[in-house]
């Protein structure tokens, strides 16, 4: 059975894309067949997988609007080990263009049905908002992975996201659940971060994964080489942490 996971957090710059590309690469290294869906018009996951977002004949935009079959839009970036349904600025228009379409929240889910048997994991990188795009991501998924920085306001933002997911679960996607809260850009030396990390554990228990992703410059510089950190420098602390996260995810067997 294919697992569909959405990497979501309505805040920007919290590590969604870094988590998506590194988890995809780590799962691929562990022998899984992975498709990464870039649902953000910024196309960061596309560029971070080594694909030039400006020169693409078909992207997730064409798939959502029914202009191209999904099979024609999926590409195989050479070095990363996973397949990609890419995105670029075209996608920003999809929001409005989808308004009149049937089953507009389920456009991605319906398209993915055609190819899901070819993959063990489908990972969806969401934009930082609760737009129709994110809704399409969340309506396709069984699980949400929430990357978060352990900062003072993080818990407040998390409550909003949890409520949104509850409401989606009730109205649009009864399968949806939070499967993982992942602490990212973590710095052990900062007491506040340790405190927030502990509060998170107390609140969300098992959903907070044991794996913690440290702040690591190799993860930040890898996208400029068109690679996830896990491929760019597998021996770095960041890469090892994402591999451990992938292993933890596999071992929990969702
Ligand atoms: P989002 O997709 O949520 O907007 P990104 O994954 O693009 O967030 O991350 C925001 C910025 O933080 C990027 O410049 C990224 O390279 C950097 N970053 C993400 N995770 C880490 C990390 N663990 N260590 C260092 N830099 C990181
Ligand atoms: Mg992003």
Automatic annotation (TrEMBL):
Domain AAA: 3-178
Taxonomy, superkingdom: Bacteria
CDD domains tied to this protein: ParAB_family
InterPro entries per record: AAA_dom, DNA_Partitioning_ATPase, P-loop_NTPase
SUPFAM superfamilies, per the entry: P-loop containing nucleoside triphosphate hydrolases
Protein's name according to its UniProt entry: Chromosome partitioning protein ParA
High-level lineage: Bacteria, Pseudomonadati, Pseudomonadota, Betaproteobacteria, Burkholderiales
């Amino acid at each position: 059975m294919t697992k569909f996971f959405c990497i979501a957090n309505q805040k920007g710059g919290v590590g969604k894309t870094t988590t998506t590309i590194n988890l995809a690469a780590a799962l691929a290294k562990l022998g899984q067949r992975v498709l990464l869906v870039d649902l953000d018009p910024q196309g960061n996951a596309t560029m971070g997988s080594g694909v030039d977002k400006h020169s693409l004949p078909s992207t997730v935009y064409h798939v959502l609007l029914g202009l191209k079959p999904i099979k024609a839009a999926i590409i195989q970036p050479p070095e990363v080990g996973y397949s990609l349904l890419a995105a670029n600025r075209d996608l920003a228009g999809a929001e409005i263009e989808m308004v009149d379409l049937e089953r507009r929240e389920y456009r991605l889910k319906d398209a993915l049905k055609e190819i899901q048997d070819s993959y063990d994991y489908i990972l969806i990188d969401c934009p930082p908002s609760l737009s129709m795009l994110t809704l399409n991501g969340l309506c396709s998924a069984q699980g949400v992975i929430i990357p978060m920085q352990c900062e003072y306001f993080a818990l407040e933002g998390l409550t909003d996201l949890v409520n949104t997911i509850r409401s989606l679960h009730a109205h649009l996607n009864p399968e949806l659940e939070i499967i993982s809260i992942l602490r990212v850009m973590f710095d052990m030396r900062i007491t506040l971060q340790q405190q927030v990390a502990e509060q998170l554990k107390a609140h969300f228990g098992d959903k907070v994964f044991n794996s913690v992703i440290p702040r690591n410059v190799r993860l930040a510089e890898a996208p400029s080489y068109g690679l996830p950190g896990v491929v760019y420098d597998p021996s770095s602390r960041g890469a090892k942490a994402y591999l451990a996260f992938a292993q933890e995810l596999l071992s929990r067997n969702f």
